[in-house]
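Lab manual, section 2.4: Encoding a predicted structure.

Procedure: take the sequence of the chain (141 residues), apply the prediction step described in section 2.3, and record the output as structure tokens. A sample record is shown.
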Amino acid sequence: MKTIACLLVLISLTMVCQAQSLVGRWQLVKESSCVEDELSPDDVETDDLVNDMKSRSGAAPQVLEFKDNNSGHESTKIISRKKSYNSKGFLYRFDGEGLYFLDKKSRTIIEGFTVEKLEADSLIITNSARVCETKIFVRIK
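Recorded output:
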């Protein structure tokens, strides 16, 4: 009987340890876009163009903060650059495999991401509509 109880406790602990929380602050460290995939990598002018585009993103750290109540805040426009989505505050839904950003009024999905990797210190998401667009985050604080 003690063996069964110990096994149940170990299985529960294993499941809790595997389930990572999205709640917290995440800083964007790398981003790939569809433009980079379409350009030829051997062209010097192409490399210069891509580097110029990346340098225009600014020096301020790009941070997403996910809160317990399924709301969040972004320091700069990281998730969506659509005109209808003009607030830095957002609502989200996370189901373990997908991360969905919701419209504040209707609570409908405005953008969806597939969670490629979620660990204690790293998060990798890919845009569901444009699989060539990937964002890599590290947890801060």
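Check your result against the sample. Helices lie at 2-18, 34-38, 44-55.
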